Amino acid sequence: KNNFGPRLGIAWNIGKDNRTVLRASTGIMYDQAMLGAYTSAIESNGLPTRISVSLSPAAAGAPAFPNTLSNLPPGYTLPAQNIFTIDPKFQNGYTFQNNLQVERGLRNNLSVSLGLVYVKGYHLPVVNNINVINPIGTLADGRPIFSGAINANTRMDPRFNQINVVESIGESTYNAVTIQFARRSRGLQFDVNYSLGKGVDNAPASGTLSFLGEGARSDPTNLDRDKGPNLLDIRHNFAGSVVASPEVNTDNAFLKALLNHNQLGLMLQFNSGLPFTITSNRDLNGDGSGSDRPLNIGRNSMYFPNRWNVDARYSRYIPIRKSVRAEIIAEFKNIFNIVETQGVLSSVQVDTLGNPLTPIPTYVSTYSKPGGFRPNGGFEQREFQIGFKLHF
Fold it and tell me: CA-CA distance, 100 to 30, in Å (whole number)?
């Protein structure tokens, strides 16, 4: 009786000239089952059959390399474990998606469209440590501070340190306006579009729930403390593809052979950067999850630099005889070799109260503007490859 996703779409041809179309759609889309979360729940269920023990070579009971432990070292006491589980009330997340688009044919092969998008997400998964109780203080921004001791006064179940539960309590919104130009004709095709959007949620996606991964919640008692831009919040996004296959009619045999049988393709991606979260070097609230945000710093409040990327593909056909022809293919990735940041060192030093020890940078460092957050990863540099094909 659950995961029922009704959807409806309409297309209306407006006007007698048959050049204007109104399209609208609405529907509910459910997420797939998160098998990774169930795997983690099985592996970290609190039973001593699955325990990681780290020992130095000189520690009592440490096996001689390359031997491994067959049991716990003599006298070794297991520390309080962190366990992982799924809320019994957990439900698959879903989104309520709505689209409205008006498309107008300007000429036989050219069209323009304007669209609006609204998406609301419900029951988004969030990992929450439910075992910390009785805060011993608060940070200046209101986040509670918990004790590092493990006993009946500080833990709901003192047998464990953290009880991390996947709960379906998050929500999200996404709004966007899009505009698109398209041309489809022999010799030249292009499709370019621009979108202005904004995505917000209160569901930090930890590594267990997402291939991207975020830090843990900053406040186990208040979900909205982590409300902010989502991990894929790209405000401005321009994307386009162009394919040109010119055909030239001329009496000059040399020019005709030179200018025909060519094809050039371009892929364009120009967009604002993805967001990232400024973290600290401390577990400020004492919940066992480090890298908390410094005081008064919002989740995903900083953005990478804009991305400018152009890929190209050139191919040349060489007729040999009848249906036999050769083809030379040249492909370029990031043809202008523009530096594109994918990650930064986002941690800053703070005192025990969460105050930064030095001013927090307001930008990402570049060759021309050092002193910001230092990049530690990027997208592909320029690449070139050439290939040959024979069609027969």
Answer: 21
